[in-house]
Specification:
Chain A is mainly alpha-helical. Chain A contains 22 helices and no strands. Chain A is globular. The chains are: A mainly alpha, B alpha+beta. Chains A and B meet through α7 of A and α4 of B.
Chain lengths: ~450, ~160
């Protein structure tokens, strides 16, 4: 059984990285193999919290997708983008900063792909109006999306998975990751000012042209916009309070999504059809494959190796946190960060059992959220999300941006993205390292 | 009622190296709404429709909502025409083609048009050579001709500028 599960896992990983076959097909077929070979029983795959599908992640993702699908119909994102272009008065660097900010904020609360899908067309449009090269703006947006998505529990799928596995709530992410991301974002913008500040120029008459754009034309349905904003606001409030009221985040999100679906007047067929089912089924397949390698003991072997390298102690895991940060970042630049975090989560749980000398399956919040362990979880989240900036295939948002840009006649080559991506990844992960080290190991501000 | 009897054989034909400007002029000079791109033996290589030509002068990111935010989009359209004017037919044409055979029934043509939403379908022989085309209008005219009690009235156009 060990070699069956290990082979399925390794082949699936290799196929996902190679992108020869769609990752959802690979994950689902791998999951079916895990079940048919009885590595995992169906009962375990569907109903076991340790080994099976994490339904909390699945329902949180589906619910947020429903809310976003309804909101996109209102045209609010396009409105905000054009408004920003006018606020920037057509000044090219100010425009770049404002677009980065709205992308980062959008990605912190919505999913990254949707945010860039909505903003890239407006960016291309504004760039055409100003007769400037849109490529620096588009790369900036992809990066802002990955950086902003790191800030909250719902911003990026790795965070949702980590929150569910480690039992962390929305406010934990706000307290621990949001400050890190604000600092990183500010430094990044400073670096961008040095790089792009004097390189972007726009003729005065073209700036005036941007000021004549009619942003109000973008809002298609004011009533639906009001309903969506109220429900999104209440859902975020619900996330902030879910730990206090002992609700799982998926419950809060499902309440928001179904309320909006009920009051929006939209047909469920079209809204539900627009849910990114391939992503959802990718998660389901992946959870089952990972459950298989947890059950046969491969994850336990991997955690043993990690312990040997980083020597974590019950009260101090500094080296583990630092290694985790860089390892996650480099891995996520090469592999999709979702399978990476799906593998690391059970590995860390197994490691906790070994470090605190607990019988298998008995770790509770006391150990999983131990003060020594918390910086490791945050390092995993920071590394996995920020690592996505490292290459054009490191994050879904990058793939979308590169694709839309090429379609519009502005090809972003692999090398061109790397030229910005690698330095930004190293820079932001380095800042994260300083943040984690100073906050948790010098100031001891847990 | 087979397709061969109803098809029109006067078509707009162009070579794969014809440029955007010439395609635009050809399509507006006559009633048909699509241009057949053929090789020297009249074998069909692709089709350029009026929609294809209009889409070419729209940037890929543009949609009706963004267009509405522009107070004056005339120069944007002109700029796009300048950009694509030298593009040739082989870059613009659609190569996935739904077609009819001359021996097909008109009913089949109607079903294929209803299914695909295309306005006009080419009629090809077994070697892929173009013989003619059938449009929605051709089928409707045939329906009227077959029903003697339908009153075919030419005076249907109302000139609103005279009101």
């Amino acid at each position: 059984m060990f070699w069956v599960a290990t082979t399925i896992f390794l082949v699936a990983y290799a196929l996902i990285i190679s992108e020869k076959i769609h990752k959802t097909k690979v994950a689902l077929f791998g999951a079916a193999l895990i079940l048919i070979t009885k590595v995992l029983l169906q009962e375990e795959a569907f109903h076991n919290m340790e080994l099976g599908v994490d339904w909390n992640v699945i329902f949180l993702l589906i619910s947020m997708m429903i809310i976003i699908n309804i909101m996109t119909k209102t045209g609010v994102f396009q409105y905000v983008a054009i408004k920003c272009a006018k606020l920037a008065k057509g000044e090219p660097f100010r425009l770049m900063m404002l677009f980065a900010i709205i992308t980062a904020v959008g990605s912190a609360f919505l999913d990254n792909v949707t945010t860039v899908l909505l903003l890239v067309p407006v960016t291309l449009f504004i760039a055409d109006q100003l007769e400037i090269n849109p490529i620096p703006y588009l790369i900036t947006e992809a990066m802002a999306s990955n950086i902003g998505g790191t800030a909250t529990m719902i911003g990026d799928p790795p965070n949702i998975m980590i929150a569910s596995k480690a039992g962390l709530d929305f406010m934990d992410f706000i307290v621990h990751l949001t400050p890190a991301i604000i600092i990183i974002f500010l430094f990044w913008m400073l670096a961008w000012k040095i790089i792009f500040g004097n390189r972007l120029h726009v003729r005065e008459e073209l700036k005036k042209r941007v000021m004549t754009l009619q942003e109000k034309e973008q809002i298609k349905d004011v009533v639906l916009l009001k309903k969506s904003l109220v429900v999104l606001g209440l859902t975020i409030l619900g996330f902030m309070l879910h730990g206090f009221f002992h609700y799982e985040p998926a419950t809060v999100a499902l309440m928001g999504a179904t309320t909006l679906l009920l009051i929006s007047g939209e047909e469920p067929q079209s809204i539900l059809a627009e849910v990114e089912w391939p992503t959802i089924f990718f998660f389901i397949g992946l959870f089952i494959i990972i459950g298989g390698i947890v059950k046969v003991g491969l994850v336990a072997d991997m955690s043993q190796a990690m312990i040997a390298v980083t020597n974590p102690q019950p009260e101090n895991m500094t080296l583990l946190a630092m290694v985790m940060l860089w390892f996650s970042a480099i891995s996520s630049a090469v592999v999709d960060n979702i399978p990476f975090v799906a593998t690391m989560n059970p590995l860390l749980i197994d490691m906790i059992h070994k470090v605190y000398d607990l019988p298998p399956g008995t770790a509770t919040g006391e150990h999983i959220q131990h003060l020594a362990m918390m910086p490791v979880w945050w390092s995993l989240a920071l590394g996995a999300c920020l690592g996505g900036n490292g290459s054009p295939i490191g994050a879904s948002a990058n793939v979308i941006v590169v694709g839309l840009s090429e379609k519009a006649g502005h090809k972003i080559s692999f090398g061109q993205f790397l030229k910005y991506g690698i330095p930004v990844m190293i820079f932001t992960v380095f800042l994260s390292m300083i943040y984690v080290y100073v906050r948790y190991y010098i100031l001891k501000w847990y | 009622m087979d397709v061969a009897k109803s098809m029109r054989t006067k078509l707009i034909i162009a070579r794969p190296d014809s440029d955007y400007k010439s395609l635009l002029c050809k399509i507006t000079s006559s009633t048909p709404r699509q241009i057949y791109i053929v090789d020297e033996n009249y074998k069909l290589l692709g089709i350029v429709t009026s929609l294809d030509l209009l889409k070419e002068v729209m940037p890929s990111y543009m949609n009706a909502d963004l267009a509405r935010s522009l107070t004056d989009g005339a120069d944007l359209l002109q700029k796009q025409v300048e950009k694509v004017k030298d593009k040739c037919a082989s870059e613009i044409m659609t190569t996935k083609i739904k077609f009819l055979r001359p021996e097909d029934q008109l009913f089949e043509a109607n079903a294929l048009i209803a299914e695909t939403g295309f306005n006009t379908l080419p009629v090809l022989d077994e070697d892929g050579k173009i013989l003619g085309e059938i449009s929605r209008r051709d089928i409707m005219i045939r329906l009227i001709n077959n029903c003697t009690d339908f009153n075919h009235n030419d005076e249907t156009l109302v000139d609103l500028s005279l009101l």
